[in-house]
Every structure is written in C-alpha cells, then in structure tokens.
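Ticket closed. Logging final result for TIGR04002 family protein.
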Amino acid sequence: MENVKVNKNVSVRTRNLVTSALLAAIICLVTGYILHIPTPNGGYAHIGDAVIYLSASILPLPYAIACSAIGAGLADLTTGAIIWVVPTLIIKPILVLCFSNKSDKIITVRNVVGAFFAGIICCVLYMFVEGLYFGNIMAAFTITAVGMIQPIGSFIAFIILGLVLDKINFKKFYSA
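Final structure:
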C-alpha cells in the first residue's frame, strides 16, 4: 500500500515538472517571438504574463515560480534583452504570489484580483528598474500609459484563456 502512495507522488511530481517545462517554453515563445502587439514607444506588448498567470493558477507555487522565471528569463536572453534577464528572474516570480491554484477553476475572484495587482506590480517594478538603468526613476514613471498596455493585454488574455480552460474543466482533468 505504501508503494502505491510513493508512486502516485512521483507521478504528481512528474506531471507538475513536465507541465512547468511546457509552460516555461510557451512563456518564452509568446514573450519573445509570437503574438506581439506593437506599442507607441517602439516596443511591443506580449501575452507572456498571461501564461505566467495561468501557470500560477494551475501549478503548485514552487513550480509556477520556476516556470515563470525560466520562461520569461529565457525570452529576454534569447531575444538579446540581456540587461533585463536579472530583473525578470526576480520580478516574474513575484507576480506568481498574487494567484492561487487551490480552486477547481482558474478564473476565481482571487485570481482576477491577483491578475489586476500582478499587472500593476509588474509595471511598477520594471519602471523602477528602467529608472535605475537609465538614471532617472521619475522619467520611467512618466511613461505609465504606454507601460500599462502590457498588463492590460495580459489581464484580458488571462481572463479569456482561463475561461476557455474552465469551460473544458481543465483543472479537474489536470488533477485526475
């Protein structure tokens, strides 16, 4: 009987590890390479944060932290945004703390509120780092309107993707 429990735990750990790796790869792809929306400052908005929000709503906390840091960090590294790798490795796991995977659904009141606050936290932390990098923290915060395109897009994408996954009972299937 005890061996069955150990095997089941290994299976859960394996499933979480594989899911984390898959989500890290998706985060990297949608952050750095696909589904970009051009912004007025010459950059682009992406839905990588929406996938981070999904991972935080599906996976246990340590796995969600790892896949968010690895996926977003690899996106910065492979797209030439080297100066953003270290801040990304710190900021993206902080966003995960706004979410819970305890419900049978992805879209819960806590996760919707969490997505709202995660967007604000992400925007503020990156603006702070930008101010440090470029020597003017106040100037970094004056471009808030452009900087908010990213979290708004991620919030909307998270809600849409979460509702679709909830419609097909993804979390019940995933935990089975």
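Residues 1-6 have pLDDT under 50 and may be disordered. No further action required.
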